[in-house]
Design a protein that fits this description.
Radius of gyration: 32 Å
Shape: globular
CATH topology of the largest domain: Alpha-Beta Plaits
Number of domains: 7
Strand order of the largest sheet: 3-4-2-5
Length: 874
């Protein structure tokens, strides 16, 4: 099967060959040698370089260093200057130039059709830990098993395979689908339908529904790249509503695709016997290096940019009216290949941009390397000016003032790739600004010509002193604040992240007059989408103690914070988050008296609610607690003992501020696309263990989990701590054994600080007769005489429980009444031994002169009192 331009990255080789550049003009010095510093490793240095340096084509991992491969020598020289001056990392031109082999010598890499498992081949020095950390940068990654990497969906595995093979010297291929996952092809699964008596119609088309929505998933690019790898693929027709129809060469290929899509993805695939007609194509215009593309509901400008950016020779994409765009290539050959492939494999409406005819008035056009003028149709509001592009803006600089200090400045363009473009009224003014910027910047500015369209905000918003700013991913929060704060009357600026991944900002000025001046100037000199805020001045708390209102429906019939990404592109619709300066409500009922515990409180806007989290709770906890502003991760579980119904897992993440919580949303969604992230509906209060209740230090920890984790999940979390030995697990509470007291103390402090578990030192002896004695029912329980001396009770657990029940038989009626009381209405106050509830509890446990010994009961909860108080030495 011939590979298409959009998926040509699958043909790139993972191996690199060394080519001498002495007598070959095409092999210029394009490889940069970067030494790995002591405080970094290969993966962390790779992430820094990808965020800082532009134009990296491929990264070659070597022992102790990295090789960066660029498309030309000028990009390599600029990268060396940036790495040495800004990052202070040793970088120089490599002695030998490394090139990509355009021919793939190992076609077995693509012998398997897409699956959710990848087989990775890496150099020997590339350890398992490095490989796992590298794969964690890709969305949908779950775990590794030797050389196998498991993803939650074949879509994410396909995206990772493309990037690993094209962007590194590692090799990846799809793993074979397990036989247990194959869908049985019975009569109902075959794509056929009975048309009449004796006639059977077999379908070669497949309808795919429930395509995922994610900020790092491009519908057309990623679906086309994955579907083109199935055997017999012919064409895909995208439809609004995340639905597509796929045509195959024969019914057998369609049947195989249905079974594999069902087994390896979360999408729904069924045989399609009726499908919408594809739009008709207009006759081709004259061959040109620019393409005219119609934007569709499923093909936004951002998706179109991602689609064409993967094609060879792509240069630029510009808007051409409301529903069209112009895509420029560096040659007519590249444009022709892209057009032929998309017309053959998709239902996109695409044509060559129409050349300007003789006798017509000059129209707004794009520059063409061939010297011909290419007309931009449907673009009456388009403008084109010469300008200067800065790919790496200096940190802390005002994006607008970077260009506006030079004469002839007209407009600032914040491009989607993160670069800034300053447009000028003439080419001479742009060249003068270019010369000055080259003297003052470490990066290499370039001279460009840029077309833009003016934005006209809606006039149905009541003017106020608060402006709404729609922020795209190219403009950071710091850049936006520095730009907006330069206007007179600036008061405050806050940025929020919607649950859909889009950003918006609210900027407050001293008066309506100041806001109006800023609004008019921003619209006239930048490409930011700005308007008056629909919430008005109440957005910054001017409305008093106003309770935040939310739109939509929630899980419990209330409201939801899930916003549609499509609404942002058509209308400046603000998210439901409001600034609320009212004090959070206090929890009326508490299990423990406030003098004994210190509650950690987080408001609804600073607390995230996660549903369908990944199965590895240790990875989840470490990832969430490492987010900026995260203070605590509260793991929850709907499963309860003695119940036939079982629910799913969920968790709460507490942050210091609402801004920190909003910034963490897209990172969590990118890490686990199947995980649903929302703001908590109510304030969350977590109880922490007081120092008085921790008890005397020992090697054993008592962990109150309250059915929130399973044995394997808790064991994975504890394995992150040094000195961990083994675990005695019970659904309500568990004991963890460590090698030293210091190891146990470190684990206790971290668990009490970062999780919802309540931990204390256990005074139960950690010297047992056998490591597996707890599982065999012969766990040795430490008893204590009244005088404090310890004795060993070698009775089995079952016999010990029976004796305990006999001793407490007289208190059965009293304990029944206590346990029937609601837990939230009871308060227990920590007190010293011999007084209050402590002495009552000791008497219930059989203390006194009658039996001469007191036994500690930690594995059975006899009352609704906090269980770990029974296990703390007082």
């Amino acid at each position: 099967m011939a590979m298409s331009p959009v998926s040509n990255t699958f043909d790139r080789s993972s191996s690199l060959r060394q080519v001498s550049s002495a007598h070959d003009e095409s092999s210029q010095r394009r490889t940069v040698y970067v030494a790995v510093p002591r405080d970094h490793d290969h993966v962390s240095l790779r992430e820094i370089l990808l965020d800082t340096v532009d134009g990296i084509s491929k990264i070659h991992f070597a022992h102790g260093n990295l090789f960066l491969i660029f498309n030309n020598s000028s990009q390599a020289d600029a990268a060396i200057a940036t790495i040495n001056d800004s990052l202070h990392i040793k970088a120089q031109v490599a002695r030998t130039d490394l090139h990509d082999d355009t021919h793939n010598p190992d076609q077995r890499r693509h012998s398997n059709e897409p699956s959710a498992t990848l087989i990775i081949s890496a150099p020997r020095f590339f350890t398992k830990d490095l490989l796992e950390r590298l794969l964690q940068t890709y969305p949908g990654f779950e775990s590794t098993d030797g050389r196998k990497a498991h993803f939650s969906d074949a879509i994410w595995a396909c995206k990772a395979l493309v990037d690993v093979n094209s962007g590194t010297n590692l090799t990846a291929q799809f793993g074979r689908l397990a036989q247990s996952l194959e869908v049985e092809r019975n009569g109902d699964e075959r794509p056929k339908v009975t048309v009449g008596e004796g006639r059977v119609r077999i379908s070669r088309s497949v309808e795919i529904r429930d395509i995922p929505r994610s900020s790092n998933f491009s519908l057309v690019k990623d679906m086309l790249g994955m579907l083109s790898l199935y055997r017999g693929f012919v064409k895909v027709a995208f439809q609004p509503g995340n639905v597509c129809f796929v045509d195959f060469a024969d019914p057998e290929s369609a049947t195989t695709a249905i079974s594999r899509i069902r087994a390896t993805t979360q999408m729904t695939a069924v045989a399609a016997f009726k499908r919408p007609n594809d739009p008709g194509h207009f006759p081709l215009e004259r061959l040109a290096s620019a393409l005219f593309v119609r934007l569709e509901p499923f093909l936004k400008e951002k998706d179109a940019r991602a689609l064409f950016d993967a094609m060879e020779g792509f240069q630029e994409i510009v808007a051409a009216g409301q529903n069209h765009c112009i895509v420029r290539f560096n040659s007519t050959t590249s444009a022709q290949e892209a057009l032929e492939h998309l017309r053959r494999a998709t239902n996109l409406v695409i044509n060559y941009a129409k050349n300007q005819r003789r006798g017509q008035s000059a129209s707004k056009s794009l520059p063409n390397p061939t010297g011909k003028s290419v007309e931009v149709r449907h673009s009456a509001d388009m403008n084109e000016l010469p300008g200067v592009r800065v790919t790496n803006p200096p940190f802390g600089a005002n994006a607008k003032e970077l260009f506006s200090i030079y004469n002839g400045f007209k407009r600032l363009i914040c491009d989607e790739d993160g670069s800034l473009i300053g447009l000028y009224e003439s080419e001479d003014a742009a060249k003068r600004a270019l010369a000055e910027l080259r003297r003052s910047l470490s990066s290499e500015p370039t001279l460009v010509r840029k077309s833009y369209s003016t934005y006209r905000p809606s006039d149905d918003v009541v003017p106020s002193a608060v402006l709404y700013v729609d922020l795209h991913a190219a403009l950071t929060e710091g850049q936006a604040k520095r730009l907006l704060s330069a206007y007179n009357g600036f008061v405050d600026f806050k940025v929020f992240m919607k649950t859909s991944g889009d950003q918006y900002g609210l900027v407050q000025y001293a008066s309506l007059a100041h806001a109006k001046i800023a609004l008019e100037d921003i619209l006239a000199t930048t490409n930011l989408r700005v308007n008056y805020s629909r919430k008005g001045e109440t957005a910054f708390g001017a409305g008093g103690n106003q309770v935040p209102k939310r739109r939509g429906s929630s899980r419990s019939g209330g409201s939801s914070t899930v916003a549609s990404r499509e609404n942002v592109s058509t209308r400046l619709d603000e998210d439901e988050i409001e600034f609320d300066k009212t004090s959070p409500p206090q929890l009326k009922n508490s299990i423990v008296d406030e003098s004994a515990r210190t509650p950690t409180t987080a408001g609804p806007k600073s607390t995230l609610h996660l549903t369908s989290p990944p199965p590895n709770k240790a990875v989840l906890k470490n990832f969430l607690i490492n987010q900026v502003g995260a203070t605590r991760v509260m793991l929850k579980r709907l499963t309860r003992p003695n119940l036939s119904t079982t629910g799913g897992d969920y968790c709460f993440v507490l942050f210091t501020t609402a801004e920190a919580a909003s910034r963490a949303i897209p990172k969590i969604v990118e890490r686990w696309p199947a995980c649903s992230v929302d703001y908590a509906r109510n304030e969350y209060v977590s109880e922490t263990v007081n120092e008085l209740e921790i008890g005397k230090e020992s090697k054993v920890l008592y962990i109150l989990t309250l059915y929130s984790v399973t044995y394997s999940e808790l064991d994975e979390i504890l394995r992150e701590y040094e000195g961990y030995k083994e675990l005695e697990y019970a659904p309500h509470h568990s004991r963890a054994y460590f090698n030293t007291v210091a190891n146990a103390r470190n684990a206790l402090e971290d668990l009490n600080k970062t999780t919802g578990f309540q931990c204390a030192f256990s005074n139960v002896s950690n010297q047992r007769s056998h490591p597996d004695s707890a599982k065999r029912g012969n766990r040795r329980i430490q008893g204590r005489h009244v005088n404090g001396s310890a004795v060993d009770d070698t009775r089995s657990t079952d016999q010990w429980d029976k004796d305990r029940d006999d001793a407490n038989e007289g208190e059965g009626t009293k304990m029944k009444k206590e346990t029937e009381k609601p837990l939230k209405t009871r308060r227990y106050k920590h007190s010293g031994p011999g007084s209050g509830s402590g002495s009552d509890k000791n008497r219930r446990n059989g203390s006194g002169t009658e039996n001469g010994a007191k036994r500690e009961v930690a594995d059975v909860v006899q009352a609704s009192e906090p269980a770990f108080l029974n296990d703390v030495q007082r």
